[in-house]
Amino acid sequence: MSLMAAPAASARPVPGPRGLPLFGNLTAFGRDPLAFFGRLRDHGDVVTWRLGPRRSVFVSRPDHIAEFLAAVEQTFEPLEIGWGLKQLVGDSVLLSKGAAWRRKRTLVQPTVRPRHVRTYAITMVDCATELAGAWCEGQRVDVRREMTRLTQRIVVRTLFGNDLEDDGGRLGDAMAAIQRELATELRGGVNLFLPSWARPPWRRRLLAAVTVVDAEIRRLIDARRAEDPADGRQDDLLGRLLAARDEDGRALTAREVRDEAVTLWAAGHETTSTTLTWTWLLLSRSPDARARLTEELDRVLGGRPPAYEDYEQLPWTRQIVKEALRLYPPAWVIPAVAGKDAALGGSPVRAGTIVWCSQWTTHRDPRWFRDPAAFRPERWDAGAPDAVPDHAWFPFGGGQRTCLGARFALVEATLVLATLARRFHLEADPHDGRPAVGLLLQPAVPVRATVRAR
C-alpha cells in the first residue's frame, strides 16, 4: 500500500492525555495548542480529551475529517472559540448557525463567484504593480507589514470600491493588535472560560482595536449609502450587501451589513497576507524552488504583468502557494459541537461533545506527506508518485461551510506572487519559522528582508 493511501478506518476512540481534575487538558492546550494537537494525533486517529469540563474528540484522518466537515450544519454546530472572535465578526456568516447562516450565506456567496474574481484580478495585479514600483534594490522591508498593506488595499478596492486613506496603517495595526489579544485568549487557557462581563487588560485592548475597525468600516458604509446609485459604483461587495434581499424580500440590517463587511474585509486580506508572508520566507530558504519560479514567470509572462487568464498557466507558482498553505495554514483548527447524538466512522459521539480537527496537524502528518516538514512544491506536480488523499489538505475547510473566499484567496496569492517575483526576490533574515497562534497562524517574530532586484 502506498504511503499516501488513506482507506476508510474505524473511528473507535482512544483516550488522550488524562489532564487535571476539573481543568482536563485546558492547561496543555492553552500553553501550546499546536504541540498539544500533535500529541493527540500521536495517540490515535480519534482521541478523546477534555477542554475544561467539556468532552472533546480530536480527529486527524482525512476520511474522518471529510465525514465530520460534511456533517457540520446538519449534525454539528460551529463552536465559537472564546470571546474575542465574536467581538470582531459578530453574527456574520462565519459564526452564525442554522437558518440564519443559510440566509446570510445565500446573500453573501454571489459576491465572490469566479466571474467576479476574474474582474477583481485586474485590481490585484494593479495594486501589486504599485508596490513593486515602490521597492528598490537593497531596501529593507517588514514582509508582513508590506503584504498586509498590499492585500488590504486590494480587498478595499475590489470589495468596497474605494481606497482607505488609512494614514499610518490604522486598520492593519488594529488587526495586528486583535491577533495578539486573540493569541492571549487562547494561550491563557482559562481565558476561554471568563464570563463575558469580565474586562481584563487584554480584552480592553482588543475592544479598542475593534473600535478602530468599526469606525473605518462604518465610514465606508456611510459613504456608500450617501452615493447616487446612478454613479455605477454599487456593483461591488458593499453595494451588493446593501442591495441584497432574501427570499422574503428582507434586507440585511445595519448590524448585519457591518458584520459581513468586517468579516469579508478581515478574511479577504489577512488570510492572503499571512500566506504571502510565509511564502516569501520559504522561498528565501529554497533557491531551487525560486529558480524554477523565475523560469516559469519568464517563460509564461515574457516580461509583462500577469492576468487572470495566466492563473492556470502558472502551475509552479500555484504549487508554491499550495505548499505554503500546507506548511502554514492560516486557519489552523476547526471545532464544532454535536447538537445531538451523532456518529463518526460508525462510532458514537454524544450530544454536547466538541469535535476538533486541525489543518496544522493533518497537513504535517507523515502518513499523508513524505518528509512533511520540508517545503517541497514538487509534491503537487501533476503525476507526482504520492497521491494526497482528499482532506489531507484543507486550508479552507470543507463541506457546506467551505470558505466562501477560497478562490479569491488562491488567485490573489498566485497573481501577487507572480507580479512581485518577476521583478524582485526577498532575501529574508534568518528565521526559525515558529508560528504564533491567534485568529490566524502568523510568524511569531517579524519577517524582515532585503529587496533584491532580479
Look at the structure and give the mean pLDDT. 87
Q: What integer value in Å does the Rg equal?
A: 22 Å
Q: What pattern of helices and strands is seen along the backbone? A: EHHEEHEHHHEHHHHHHHEEEEHHEEEE
Distance between the termini: 45 Å
Strand order of the largest sheet: 1-2-3-9-6-4
Low-confidence spans: pLDDT under 50, at least 5 residues? none
Instruction: Name the overall outline.
Output: globular
Fraction of residues in H or I helices: 40-55%
Which helices and strands, and how do they pair?
Layout: E1 14-15, H1 26-31, H2 33-43, E2 46-51, E3 54-59, H3 62-71, E4 76-78, H4 84-89, H5 98-108, H6 114-134, E5 140-142, H7 143-160, H8 170-187, H9 201-225, H10 237-243, H11 254-284, H12 287-301, H13 315-327, E6 334-338, E7 342-344, E8 347-349, E9 354-357, H14 359-363, H15 406-421, E10 424-428, E11 435-437, E12 441-443, E13 448-453
Parallel strand pairs: 1-2, 3-9
Antiparallel strand pairs: 2-3, 4-6, 5-13, 6-9, 7-8, 10-13, 11-12
Helix pairs in contact: 6-7, 6-15, 7-11, 8-9, 9-11, 11-13, 11-15, 13-15
Please describe what this structure looks like.
This protein is of the alpha+beta class and 454 residues long. It is built from 15 helices and 13 strands. Helix 7 packs antiparallel against helix 11 (254-284) and helix 8 (170-187) runs antiparallel to helix 9. The protein is globular. The mean pLDDT is 87.
Could you name the key traits of this structure?
11% strand, 47% helix, 454 residues, three-stranded antiparallel sheet, alpha+beta, 13 strands, single chain
